[in-house]
Amino acid sequence: VEVKIEVVIPEKERSKEEMSPNGKASPLIYKVNGTARHYHLEEHPIASNPYHNPKDVVEASVCHVKDLENGQMREVDLGCGKALLIKEGGEFHAVGHKCPHYGAPLVKGVLSKGRVRCPWHGACFNISTGDIEDFPGLDSLPRFQVKIEKEKVYIRASKQALQTQRRTKMMAKCISLSNYNLSSTNVLIIGAGAAGLVCAETLRQEGFSDRIVMCTMDRHLPYDRPKLSKSMDSHPEQIALRPKEFFRTYDIEVLTEMQVAAIDIKNKTAVFKDGFKMEYNKLLIATGNTPKALSCKGKEVENVFNIRTPEDANRVVKLATSKNVVIVGASFLGMEAAAYLTERAHSVSVVELEEVPFKKFFGERVGRAVMKMFESNRVKFYMQTEVSELREQEGKLKEVVLKSGKVLRADVCVVGVGAVPATGFLKQSGINIDSKGFIVVNKMMQTNIPGVFAAGDAVTFPLALRNNKKVNVPHWQMAHMHGRIAALNMLAHGMEISTVPYLWTALFGKSIRYAGHGEGFDDVVIQGDLDELKFVAFYTKSDEVVAVASMNYDPIVSKVAEVLAAGRTIRKRDVETGDMSWLTGKGS
Question: Are 454 and 445 in contact (CB under 8 A)?
Fold first, then answer.
């Protein structure tokens, strides 16, 4: 028996992710130096035949039908590129072999019930369609047709699809743009992070053809914000989630450097700081959070940064080169920045109120192992203390004074002491905000006001994994899913969120992966070797595993995420024995 795989991808999807499959372009509004400018593109031809060029197609025999058992995956080479061949339920499927997010090899991921989960960051793809079903990332996998002849498996594929290893889902276009009043829109999205962008893209993917406007205080189109502290010298165009052409092609209008000052719920109007007003039919609030600033003496001196933009990150790298850096706060941002700057700076010091980094999140033992890794890379820690003063010389930072009395030489300071939700403009709106400033939403990302949705770092929502407890999960993957759920419910799909939180951090070329929600954990069960930084840590509350973290132990976190996503309970005793049979469905 032979299996054949054929890639079916529209012409416009076969090149880069920004290419569109069809249609007209809308005005894309950019605010440049305070002036709104409108840009139009001419109509693009619609691709009618995905195989208009026979030279672009390759067909190859990749294995015998008996080479794969049910539940197995194999990376196969077609000569000009690779595909992922999967056998599940007696059927063969073939899709792209790399995760479109950061290129992880999906053959090392987790196959479960019709989808494959990325081993690095947890994105999930349907093995029949290639469609992305959980995040992070925006693009889906190319899908290849599989044929079986004489007990051999054949794959037929577009060479272009094999090379790009990604597919942008078909999207609708906006109609009758010329009839629109510039001060009104059907959907207004406040915030241009992952939640806002995924919301806009999902609306178009679902056939929504009315006007969509995104607005952001940033000067840039949506970008990969986690890279600001992981790869601090990245330029905006290098980390853009989509190129300018994408927004034009799919009629997603973006207002940059525009801040909303108030929401008039009664009249369905957003009031901007500059006095401009825009009416909406549906509203998504995805404003994220605002970094906390230091409150000590001298906080206004130059060269003290909250890393919020690419310009902030780039400036820190420039100032830190061969100089003395002080990081205030052993947070994810603070520790990632410390790791990145170590090779560039003369010295890097971390000041933290807790006893060890990440104690509340990863626990003391894992935190101490991470701290040891940093110390072996010349990072100096000053724990259980705070900054009392920032001293300057000619207006620029010179020294950081600690409450312990220690004085640290400092040419640049990065502040990573947490953040607060950017929801101050909603206080008089009537939208329900909790005591900490988070927007309260239900499982459909709806606020208490009809037609008003919220998503991302600024919300609390019911987490199915923790018996629908209202939680805040300020992580990149979750923001993507929030945006998708909000969009589907703007279209009245009645979709509830049930995703498992998944996050990662990159430190000195090593990654810690994490899935679940460990808030309030009372014990940590560790397998592996913390000293060797090869371990998996299970976070338990009472008798139940509520989260997992790992280092150099792939794909354990993705496996646990799949178990939790299936609604199965992992008991503490299951992980204490070291018996991993529960991962294959034999547990609770």
Answer: yes
